[in-house]
Amino acid sequence: MAGRFAPKPTPTRTTVRGGHTPLPAATGALDLGLTLGPLRRGPADPTFRATPDGSVWRASRTPDGPGTIRIRTDGAEAWGPGREWLLEALPALLGADDDPTAFVPRHKLLLATLRRRPGLRLTRTGLVLESLIPSVLEQKVTTHEAYGSWRTLVRKYGEPAPGPAPDGMYVMPDARAWTRIPSWEWHRANVDGKRSATIVRAARVAARLEEAAHMDPPAARRRLELVPGIGPWTSAETIQRSNGAPDEVTTGDLHLPGIVGWALAGDRTADDEAMLDLLAPYAGQRHRAARLILLSGRVPPRRAPRMTPGNITAL
What we know:
This protein has helices at residues 32-36, 83-93, 108-116, 129-137, 143-157, 175-179, 183-188, 193-204, 206-210, 217-224, 232-242, 256-265, 272-279, 286-296; strands spanning 14-17, 48-50, 56-62, 65-72, 75-79, 159-160, 170-171. By secondary structure, it is of the alpha+beta class.
């Protein structure tokens, strides 16, 4: 594909030193790992890297083209055609649009977790497709399978990250490249026909979907769900990241209702309806409440075996 063999852009450095997270002083220290962690699709995600020096690297396909950004607590640097876009979007990426003071803990567990995790912010990438496609890949399969599929496809059809990015980093394919992946390559990447067809349909209307990043979250989710194959689970997982939506809680998840039910009511059998009832006191901040519950580490003891990974490449 053209994206795969595009020449690597000449590294051009743009530097911002200090003051790149214009958050109110009352919000406290920023935790890069907690804030940006939801953007990482597995430990070997080719678009994301955390390095021992405390830097977080991201390779993104922006409206201006591919770009790489390196983020540290004292500043950020960016390279490639998308460098200016990435630097302009950096405050929102680090939670400048988020207001953690709007969250009022009503359970001791959440109060304790909030005190232990004061640096959590809800990221806003401003990019829809880069969160939508891996979310589609995660439909009805284990995260291990989905991460492997994402890794395979990005490395094969994406392009090397611009600038001095760590080895093995890639920018995801552009929308046209996603639509041109042959059926057998989807198969080799362990992606079934339903998920690949959904990704292709989304890529064909990528411009319209990217507009959702500038919409109110409910309207943004409705826009995404116009695409066959994108339901409430996928739209919530996407808009949480692209729009920094504090209230868009994920429904239709295999594990989340039981985790929320156990944490807040000692009920591991909770379904979506029960979960939403338990989160009702956090209206407007239900996604943040769910994030804090997951960070608390209070999960029900496992009884059933883990979901068995599938492998369509063996068929």
